[in-house]
Structures are given as C-alpha cells and as structure tokens.
Design a protein that fits this description.
Strand content: 35-45%
Structural class: mainly beta
Order of helices and strands: EEEEEEEEE
Number of strands: 9
Helix content: under 10%
Number of helices: 0
Largest sheet: 4 strands, mixed
Shape: globular
Strand order of the largest sheet: 1-2-7-8
Amino acid sequence: SEFRTRGPAGGNDEFVELFNATGSPIDIGGWKISGSNSAGTVSDRATIPAATTLGPGCFFLVTNAGASGYSGSVVGNLTYTTGITDDGGVA
C-alpha cells in the first residue's frame, strides 16, 4: 500500500507496507520485496516466510534494520538490511 526509500533518519530509513484490502485472507508466504537502482540492477531485499497469511483489512510491514534504518514507531513484521536506492524502484 505504501513504501519509503528515505526518511527523517536518512537513506536507510525505509519501509514497505502491504495491505489486504479484500474480505478474505491472502497467503503472502514466499512473496519477495525487490529493489533496483538507476542502472537497472534488481535484487531481493526480503522474502516473506512460508505460511504467512495476511488477514482481511490487515497490514504487513517490512523495514530496513541496517545502520540508521527504519525510524517509525510501528514495529515491522520482517526486516532487511540492504537499502533501496533513491534513484531505483521497488517491486
């Protein structure tokens, strides 16, 4: 539903949030969060563990736990440590 590649704490202050807007649970196990840079290099940042279900109307938060990482007050469900460049993308 939203993402941030740079926040108040700097370039690693990142998150990716998934939201289930449906009325049914969704199996998100095995889904990957990937990042790219301006050169087009793509790599996985996080893989959601198998058998992870996102309930209807629920959120799943993936945060950067690297140095000067995610500064939000909501604790993430999963972390990664390789940042997503400002000139890249998220998939």
